[in-house]
Automatic annotation (TrEMBL):
SMART domains named in the record: DoH
Source organism (scientific name): Apodospora peruviana
Pfam families in the cross-refs: CDH-cyt
Protein name: DOMON domain-containing protein
Superkingdom classification of source: Eukaryota
Length: 217
């Protein structure tokens, strides 16, 4: 079976305990990858984007490492997005899921895992340190450091080969924005893409300095 067809078969999105499979035709294939460099720091990210109505995801990792390693993740989403999620293993099932949503003028980031066709439960194997989060009239954003997103039971990210990732979003707000264990509704859009992490690599010193600077800001 073709890799994309297999992945989309298992990429099942959920509505409070009920799930339905999605077809290859429902995947958003418009995502593009590029290198984004911050003007405020010496840090560059691998950027994944689609359209203006969907989130932008940015990833940075320390160079010269193999899994497990920490990952910097930025999520920048239009305010029309009730939640946005990122799957580190390319599908919903059996890999770490990062799910974020606005909470007042801040953002809640939740670590999730799904073993089947159920709402993803909270996951203790990946932890997040929030470096910044905010919401204004047009967008909400968060930047976090994830420990546990690069390697998990049954899989890991490659720093030299191709990795498959996935993302999803909903236009509906979560039920309890202040709670990282809140339930959330079915997605309105999702996508899957494969890429290497060459554009995500930054030096160890720059990576750690960014985390340190954000923590003291």
């Amino acid at each position: 079976m073709h890799l994309l067809a297999l992945a989309t078969t298992i990429f099942l999105l959920i509505c409070n305990g009920c799930a339905s499979p999605i077809s290859d035709s429902s995947l958003d294939k418009r995502q593009t990858t590029s290198k984004y460099c911050s003007a405020e720091s010496n840090l560059c990210y691998l950027q994944i984007s689609t359209t203006a109505s969907n989130p932008v995801f940015r990833i940075a990792i320390p160079d010269g490492t193999s899994a497990p390693f920490e990952i910097l993740l930025q999520i920048i989403a239009p305010v029309s997005n009730g939640w946005a999620g990122f799957a580190w293993g390319g599908g919903m099932i059996a890999n770490p899921l990062t799910v974020a949503w606005p909470n007042g003028n801040k953002v809640t980031v939740s670590s999730r895992w799904s073993s089947g066709r159920t709402l993803p439960g909270t996951y203790s194997g990946a932890t997040y340190k929030t470096l910044s989060s905010s919401k204004n009239s047009t967008h909400w954003m968060a930047e976090v450091v994830c420990t546990g997103c690069s390697k998990w039971s049954g899989g890991q990210l490659s720093t030299t080969g191709i990795n498959t990732f996935a993302w999803a979003l909903s236009r509906t707000a979560v039920q309890q924005p202040a709670s990282a264990s809140s339930s959330f509704s079915i997605h309105n859009n999702l996508g899957q893409f494969s890429t290497d992490l060459s554009s995500a690599k930054v030096s160890q010193s720059v990576f750690q300095q960014h985390i340190k600077s954000a923590a003291t800001a």
